[in-house]
Amino acid sequence: MSTPPHQPSGDPSAGPGRPFPAQANPSWMGQVRQQDYRPAPGHQGRALAPVMPGPAQDSLQRSPGRRGGLLGLTIGGSVLAFLSLFLVVPFLFANTGPGGLVIGFVASLVPLSIVLLAVQAIDKWEPEPKRLLFFAFTWGAAVSIAVTLLIQPLFVVTFQFSDEPDLRTYLATVQAPIVEEFAKSLGLLVILLLARRHFDGPVDGVVFAFTIAGGFAFTENILYFGRAIAESTDPAGDFAQVFFLRGIMSPFAHALFTGTTGLVMGFAARRWHAGASVAAFFVGLLPAMLLHNRWNSMGQGFLLDYALVQVPIFLLAVAGIILLRVAEKRLTRQRLLEYSAAGWFTAQEVQLLATLAGRRAALAWAAGYGRKRQMKDFIRAATRLANIRQRILSGRDVPLHQAEERQQLQRVLALRASVAG
User: Fold this and answer.
1) At CA 397, angle to CA 344 and CA 22, rounded to 5?
2) pTM (predicted TM-score)
């Protein structure tokens, strides 16, 4: 196939005055303004052969820069989580006892598994690095719990209450929504500021938020399940009731709360700007705190409120995530088509890379040649490239993202060679 001449994406003629393709905005997500649009840089060199046929070659190692950045964040997060355990574990042990702690830990694995399976399903299109997900989980399970335990006494000391029930109500409906959502979402802000190349939009925000919230709920469930055993005259009955309410009826409660913050921050990440992202952190806390307050305020009419309010909210969240996934796929396909027009992909490859059916076919073919892992890397690299282009077209920090684009384009070419030969 022929390749167009090289057109640097930083060409001064790009943007205003250049043709604006009608298909540049394939969905409501990631809209591009005409003045910010610029064509993809043209491919230089020989025409590209289709990636599917050909012998296998040695796989390309991941970029050292990416590995180093994530490694530093992982180590830092692990140290924070380890230090947090010196506060969290004694607190759990004092409230549950050894037997309650063990049983609570095992029982908490059930709702945690449900949430993590949901994260895996949502994250299937563009899987996040496992190190980053590990950071998110440990932040939720340890660091955010420790932050909550450190801040919570300030609410108790600052405000005066007439009796114990008033204090409990205040802690559940005011302190918990504010402190817990702040502690959890602080991890989102750390990821956005320190690993922003992996925080490409609202879907990523939901994935990270669900993972953090799943970790937080895991530790919190250990407390509630263990306490139901340690403080009850009917341990089996009380444990079964608490497990049903928290483990079966509401495993996604914390995920939905913090997910709203991740959603807001994800939209801010689409048009990257440090100040806007920090502002999105505070804006995103408001719906999370409101939903958390609404949940903790349910009293005697719990079942009715659960059926009429919480279930519809959950179904709305599911529908919203599906819409986000559809929009993300359309955006990926359009950006890859633009690279295809510039000579970086064949038309066949765009079909393989931008649809679930195409990806399954590509992976099945690669598995027959023992190259499934390399094909996965190629798919992920192409998806990452589409997200980089989306950030370029946002009009913010364009030279920075163009430098990243040049590196990613070379990585895509090298991965193509590792798959097709």
Assistant:
1) 50
2) 0.83
Q: Which of 175, 185, 111 is nearest to 149 (CA)?
A: 175
Find all residues with CB under 8 Å of 159, minimum gap 6, and list them.
Answer: 170
pLDDT tens for 397-416 read 788 889 999 999 999 999 98
User: What is the residue-averaged pLDDT of the chain?
Assistant: 85
CA distance 293 to 253: 11
Instruction: Report how far residue 130's alpha carbon sits from residue 195's, in angstroms, rounded to the nearest whole number.
Output: 13
DSSP 197: G
Spatial distance between the Cα atoms of 121 and 108, rounded to a whole number of angstroms? 20
Q: Which two tokens stand for residue 291?
A: 């939903």
User: Taking the alpha carbons of 359, 360, 361, 365 in that order, is the dihedral positive or negative?
Assistant: positive
Q: Are 237 and 211 in contact (CB under 8 A)?
A: no
List of residues 6+ apart from 201 with CB closer than 8 A = 29, 30, 266, 267, 269, 270, 328, 387, 390
Tokens of 87: 């506060």
Contact 87, 212 (CB under 8 A): no
| Amino acid present at 227 | R
Q: What is the DSSP letter of 395?
A: T
Nearest to 1 by CA among 50, 38, 39: 50
Percentage with pLDDT > 70 across the chain: 87
Cα(293)–Cα(271) distance, integer angstroms: 30
Q: Which pLDDT score, from 0 to 100, does residue 81 have? A: 95
Q: How far apart are CA 282 and CA 140, in angstroms?
A: 18
